[in-house]
Amino acid sequence: MPDEQMAPETAYRLVHDEAMLDGNARLNLATFVGTWMDDHANRLYIESADKNMIDKDEYPQTAEIENRCVTMLADLWHAPDPARAIGTSTIGSSEACMLGGLALKRRWQTARRAAGLSTERPNLIMSSAVQVCWEKFCNYFEVEPRYVPVSDEHRLLDGHDLEKYVDENTIGVVAIMGVTYTGSYEPVEQIAAALDRIADERGHDVPIHVDGASGAMVAPFCRPDLTWDFGIERVASINTSGHKYGLVYPGVGWIVWRDVQALPEDLVFRVSYLGGDMPTFALNFSRPGAQVLLQYYLFLRLGFDGYREVQQCSLDVAAYLSEGIGEMEAFDLWSDGKDIPVFAWRLRDGHTANWTLYDLSDRLRMKGWLVPAYPLPDDLADVTVQRIVVRNGFSRDLASALLDDLRTEVAYLDSLDGPIPRAGGNAPFHH
Fold this sequence. Notes:
Pfam families: Pyridoxal_deC (PF00282). The chain has 431 residues and is α/β, with parallel strands linked by helices.
């Protein structure tokens, strides 16, 4: 820390200039997190930057708006009684996942104690392609993770062989609406059907938490025919990221339970506001209230039709890009961006021994594009893919420019008469 003060203009310029060294957020095709909002949202953000979400006595109307957002999401996800559904905003969907996992663990513990059974060794079942926040949950809250490995035959958790993993200590199964690696939806209905069979045969009644970090704000608008939410009785809770396809700046997430029975009462703290009672369940205390107001602004501004139009536009751009990349001789598509506007591709077998997708990622970075390359998990760890995330604000025009640069860089790499030298192993992209 400097010994003396400096003029605010000087301090601003120092910070501003260093921040320019970061990449251009709009060209970051690695992140799911929103990088653009309209001018009215930006103005509202500045006006509400001082609001503390945890201080519900001081900011009761912000707390009321949070409740309205929860009710809207519960209705969007077909909760049995949206007006009575319980939920909360969070810093992001990682915190929401922690809360969902805690509720599953506590429900299991309560049922086991009531039956006079041991509460040791709880386990949680999930795909090996799960986002790292679930690994953190299991580590921090002492739950055994049971990973169902993805393979070329079963690229998602689809209920296959689930009976090998479920036992009396299983607190729940995580189903992903939009796998981070590829963007594909896991078939929640198939997973629930497999758990129904296990319940009938063995008596293990296992709930589902749907990690809809991305897809829970895409599927309701663009795949209304898909059954994945509280319409499936076995789904106990759903989380999403308001700052992903909820279209808000980072960071805000949401979690909703299907009813009050799905969230154990002893996990809920109660505070008084507006002369009434306000239940709260969170890991964080002080946190920004501005993003909650931004989420409400977008719910009002866009409505159902507006969200459908925005998400469909992103899906159309993803389809345009995936079609263009799929037509290139060098690549095979791994997914096509039809679920969420995210897709991945691999280098076609036998195309070249002179370069890899890591080299292509480096070449694209020289032109400002951040397009990650990384290996798939576990049984597919020998498969390297590249992935593109299309977000609101990434236009068809930008997509065309990306395709032009991609073709140019592939042509350059294909023109090499020998392999690119490497000093060491490739550093994988971390989700």
